[in-house]
Design brief:
single chain; 107 residues; alpha+beta; Ribosomal Protein L30, Chain: A; two-stranded antiparallel sheet; 3 helices; 5 strands
Amino acid sequence: MSMIDSKSDTKITTSSHSLMSLDEPKRYYVFMHNDDKTPFDFVIEVLVELYRHDEQTAADLANKIHIEQRAIVGMYNLEIAEQKVEDTVRVSRANNYPLAVTLELAD
């Protein structure tokens, strides 16, 4: 990088050579878990509103959660995954449902 010092019109040259390896940010799965109290329609609504799935995908995921006891509902970097979990729990508790969500490091 070169800059001109306006006071003396002297050219100052700087160089930075650093060998830095940046790994891809780790990704995390958000899992939604089945329970006996949270209504199917509420799960679909959460999947549409918070996770931005279309109605059909949300219904398919809700069914998978019901049958397999849990399903991956999204994959995000850590901060976003944590926010999704927090938002899901907040909305669920505000509606008096025990819907559970967890994070797992993606493979």
